[in-house]
Amino acid sequence: MRNKVIYINDFHEGCLVLDNPVFRADYPVRLSRQILGATALDTERPYHLESKRIWRSAFSRTNVERKYREIIETSMVEGFRLAEERNDLLLTTSFIPNRILLRLMNLPDTDPLVHHQNIKAIVTYFEDGIHTEASKAAFAYAHDPKFERACDIFRELPSAKDRINELSLLLIGAVETTGIAMKILCGVWHSRHQELERLIADHGMDGAILRILIDDVPLGLATRHCSKDMKLADIEISRGDIVHVDIMKSHRNENARGESSRLTADNHLVWGRGRHRCPGSNLAKAELKLYLEKLMTFVPGDFTMESAEGVQRPVTFRHTTCTSISRCPVHREKISS
């Protein structure tokens, strides 16, 4: 019998999937396994706990706030300066997260936009599953040993292959998700500015960002395979079935978090959950906070946001349809000032 593909749209059922070890991440047909190799996302792989420990140590709150703070701040300045030169705020969403990562990897001379262009086709492959010449070239680039040779973060892992796999997760998944979150913040800043101001006033910068991303998640699906026959709520699931947790739809379930103003890691899936929690979330949060602080110094009415018409947002990496955010000619004072 052919295995089923099941979508979970309920928050609590989604949590059950992510919490239950019966639902595994190590199946070979999973695209992220094919693209990235075995990484910290694969909770059943050898060295999983070790790689997760390294991620958490490298991107601990202390390291992010002290060791990486200057890198993040300098990259923000450079990104908004580039936006000024090219009159497009949207460029910051690609430049800044890639600039930060390349500096963390001891590759400060690599152009962030060229680097991002080199891996872009992999994101398309995540969506359509079609391995093109462009995605093959992007795969080869992301697994180039130069990244492993330059970066010290995963030195404790036993082989170069393990280190390259973890770095590919950092290069592709982590940076892309942060860039999408920045695009989402841009959209709210431009089109729902008064609502954003109220959110910040009521919940602070961190709380406002979290609420925005709960309503519009950067990463849309969490996918697992079932390792034995079981029943989840009233759903019969067979061994080998593929189960997609639709994070966006699960957040729309009113019972997931109700109207409570207090949010905890247990009532949203923005950064994953439990064993499947994003190991680099502290870095992403710090980037997004500084990014939104800078955005809030601008007047959205001074800018024009262009979007592609008739384009649906992707399901996995949920890029917005925005194509540019340019300052109106009458308001051309410097973006980076």
Automatic annotation (TrEMBL):
InterPro entries: Cyt_P450_CS, Cyt_P450_sf. GO terms for molecular function: heme binding; iron ion binding; monooxygenase activity; oxidoreductase activity, acting on paired donors, with incorporation or reduction of molecular oxygen. Its cofactor is heme. PANTHER family: CYTOCHROME P450 YJIB-RELATED (PTHR46696:SF1), P450, PUTATIVE (EUROFUNG)-RELATED (PTHR46696). Belongs to the cytochrome P450 family. This is Cytochrome P450.
